[in-house]
Design goal:
Distance between the termini: 48 Å
CATH topology of one domain: Immunoglobulin-like
Largest sheet: 6 strands, antiparallel
Number of helices: 2
Shape: elongated
Structural class: mainly beta
CATH superfamily of one domain: Immunoglobulins
Strand order of the largest sheet: 1-2-27-26-25-24
Length: 525
C-alpha cells in the first residue's frame, strides 16, 4: 500500500513540521514510565534489520524455513522465502496468516519479477509456526486482511483482494468455508468499492468495511484552497446475505479537515482523514481509526455522531506518558477498558521506532494510560501498515507492515518468535488463529522411477490442516489399490520412496487417528 499522504514513499516525503515524538522524548515523555521495550539490537536500515538480534534469551535457536522454489505437486505456487527465529518454546496455538506482496518501490513488480527477486507471489498465505506452508492462494494485484472469523456460527477465512491507487483500495471482501469454498463476496454499496484497509464480520452476520469517496471540501486548514476536494473515509455496514447497506458513516460529516495532521500535497484530492480500521466497540458503537488525524473515534452506530476522540488535535482524553500515538493503524478494543494500537510513528517520521501498544482507556474520567508497549529488538520503524493481536493465552502477535516481520511476544515484552519475509516484501496485517480445514479438492501426487530401483513420489494437499500421514496405495488397476506403505507428513510437500506392487499408485491423507481425509487421483507407476 502506498497512500497519498501519511503513507508516502519515504524517498519523496518531507519531514512533518509539527511537535515530534522525538522532542516529546527529550522532555521526559514517551518511554519515561510504563514502557516495556526489549533491549536494543542492531538496526541496519529500512527492511534490512537482521533477524535474531534480540537480547540473549534461553534456548534461542534459528530454524530454517523450507527453501523457495517450485513444488513438484504445485508448480504454480511460489510463496516468498521465509526466515524464522524462535527463542525457546512456541507457547501459543494457531497458524500464522499473512498476505505477502512486494513493496511498491518506484513501480509495481510483475509476478515474474517478484519471483525472480525471491519475493514470491502476491496472495493469501497460511504457515505453520515452524515456517512450513499450509495454504497459498495467489491473488494479485493485492490481498490484505487474511484472518479467521465467524459467520453464521461457523469459522471462516476472510480477506480483501483488489487494486490500489494512491493508497486507496478498490476491490471486494471474500469469505471461504473450511473447505476453501466461496461462501460470500462482500461489496461496498452506494456506488463505492471496498477499500483494502478494513473488513471484519460482526456477531449480527454483517460486514464492517472501509471505503473512500471524493467530495468538495474547504482545505484552507491544511494550506489548500477553500474550494478543494478531499478523500473522505466511509464506513459501511453490509448485510452479507443480501448486500444491503445497513449503515454508512462519512468522515466529512463529523470530522473537519482542520483536525488533519497533513499539509497540502499536490493539486489532487487530499487524504485528510485516511480511515484505516473500524470495529465494534459494543453493540451500539464503532471504534474508528484515522491515520492522518492521529486519532481514534467512538461513533454511535445508529446516528453516526462522534461520542469521543482519543488522540489528535481535539482529544477528549488526557494522554498519559508514553500513551500518545501518531500515524497509527489497527485499533481494537480488548476486554472492558483496554485497546490495542499499532503505533507506526511514521511517515513522516515522529519517532525512532514503531510500537505495538496496549492502552488503558478510562471512558468515565477520560484518561488514557500506557499498559504495555512492544518494540522489536532491531528497532523497526514501520512507514505504514501494521497490526496488533492479543492471543487467547495473553501473548501478543504483531505484524510490522512494511517491515517484513511478524513477531510474537510474551505479555511482559519478551520476544518469543520472529518470522521474516525477504527484504522489500510486506504484509498489511499479520495474525495467528486456530484453523481447521479439509479442502474440497483432492491431494496432489506426482512420481517417477528413482535411481535406486524404487519409485519417488511427492504428495501435497494445499490447505489441509489435519494430515498426519500419507498412506501409499498401489495395485494393478486404478480402481483396485491396496496400502503398501505409511509415511509421516513432512512440510507442505512430502517426498516418499515407494515400491509399487502394481501399475498404479495413489496416496491417501490420514489424520492422527488414522481416519482417511482424502485420496489423490492415481498415477501410472
Amino acid at each position: 500500500m502506498h497512500p497519498r499522504t501519511g503513507e508516502t514513499d519515504p524517498t519523496q516525503a518531507s519531514v512533518h513540521p509539527g511537535f515530534s515524538r522525538r522532542a516529546f522524548l527529550a522532555r521526559g515523555g514517551k518511554g519515561a514510565v510504563g514502557l516495556a521495550a526489549l533491549s536494543a539490537g542492531s538496526s541496519i536500515g529500512l527492511g534490512l534489520a537482521e533477524p535474531g538480534t534480540a537480547s540473549a534469551t534461553t534456548n534461542r535457536r534459528s530454524v530454517a524455513a523450507p527453501p523457495r522454489g517450485h513444488y513438484r505437486t504445485e508448480p504454480d505456487i511460489i510463496p516468498p522465502s521465509l526466515q524464522l527465529t524462535d527463542y525457546g518454546v512456541d507457547p501459543a496455538r494457531g497458524l500464522v496468516m499473512t498476505t505477502p506482496s512486494p513493496l511498491p518501490v518506484g513501480r509495481t513488480l510483475t509476478t515474474t519479477e517478484a519471483v525472480e527477486k525471491g519475493l514470491g507471489m502476491t496472495g493469501a498465505m497460511i504457515t505453520n509456526p515452524n515456517g512450513s506452508l499450509v495454504w497459498f492462494q495467489e491473488s494479485p494485484p493485492l490481498t490484505t486482511n487474511l484472518q479467521v472469523q465467524n459467520y453464521r456460527g461457523n469459522p471462516v477465512l476472510i480477506y480483501w483482494t483488489g487494486r490500489i491507487l494512491t493508497g486507496i483500495g478498490y476491490g471486494n471482501g471474500y469469505i471461504l468455508n473450511q473447505a476453501y469454498e466461496p461462501v460470500a463476496t462482500v461489496k461496498a454499496g452506494n456506488g463505492l468499492q471496498a477499500d483494502l484497509h478494513e473488513f471484519n464480520i460482526t456477531p449480527q452476520n454483517t460486514a464492517l468495511i472501509s471505503a473512500y469517496r471524493t467530495r468538495a471540501a474547504d482545505l484552507t486548514a491544511i494550506g489548500g484552497p477553500a474550494s478543494g476536494v478531499a478523500y473522505e473515509g466511509v464506513v459501511q455496514e453490509i448485510d452479507i446475505a443480501t448486500g444491503k447497506v445497513l449503515f454508512e458513516w462519512n468522515s466529512l460529516d463529523h470530522v473537519p479537515v482542520a483536525e488533519s495532521q497533513i499539509k497540502m500535497q499536490g493539486t489532487g484530492p487530499q487524504d485528510y482523514f485516511h480511515l484505516n480500521s473500524v470495529a465494534l466497540w459494543d453493540a451500539n458503537h464503532l471504534l474508528i481509526s484515522a491515520r492522518n488525524t492521529w486519532a481514534a473515534y467512538l461513533v454511535d452506530r445508529r446516528t453516526g455522531a462522534v461520542v469521543w476522540r482519543l488522540g489528535g488535535k481535539k482529544s477528549d482524553f488526557s494522554i498519559g506518558p508514553g500513551a500518545n500515538f501518531e500515524w497509527q493503524h489497527h485499533i481494537r478494543r480488548i476486554g472492558a477498558s483496554q485497546i490495542t494500537i499499532f503505533d507506526d510513528a511514521a511517515y513522516p517520521v515522529e519517532e525512532k521506532q514503531s510500537r505495538a501498544l496496549v492502552l488503558n482507556v478510562d471512558t468515565t474520567h477520560k484518561r488514557a494510560t500506557l499498559a504495555r508497549a512492544y518494540t522489536h529488538p532491531a528497532g523497526l520503524l514501520t512507514y505504514y501498515e501494521g497490526s496488533v493481536q492479543v492471543l487467547p493465552n495473553g501473548n501478543v502477535f504483531v505484524g510490522w507492515g512494511t517491515e517484513p516481520y511478524s513477531s510474537e511476544f510474551l505479555p511482559n515484552g519478551e520476544l518469543l518468535y520472529d518470522l521474516r519475509f525477504p527484504t522489500n516484501d510486506q504484509s498489511y496485517r499479520a495474525f495467528r488463529f486456530d484453523w481447521t480445514a479439509t479442502p474440497s479438492t483432492s491431494p496432489k501426487l506426482v512420481g517417477g522411477p528413482d535411481q535406486i530401483g524404487g519409485y519417488a513420489l511427492h504428495a501435497s494437499w494445499n490447505g489441509a490442516t489435519q494430515v498426519a500421514h500419507w498412506q501409499v496405495l498401489s495395485g494393478k488397476s486404478a480402481s483396485s489399490l491396496d496400502p503398501i506403505a505409511l509415511v509421516p507428513k513432512s512440510g507442505f510437500e512430502t517426498a516418499i520412496t515407494a515400491h509399487p506392487t502394481g501399475s498404479y499408485v495413489a496416496v491417501a491423507a490420514l489424520d492422527v487417528h488414522g481416519k482417511r481425509l482424502g485420496v489423490s487421483p492415481s498415477i501410472k507407476a
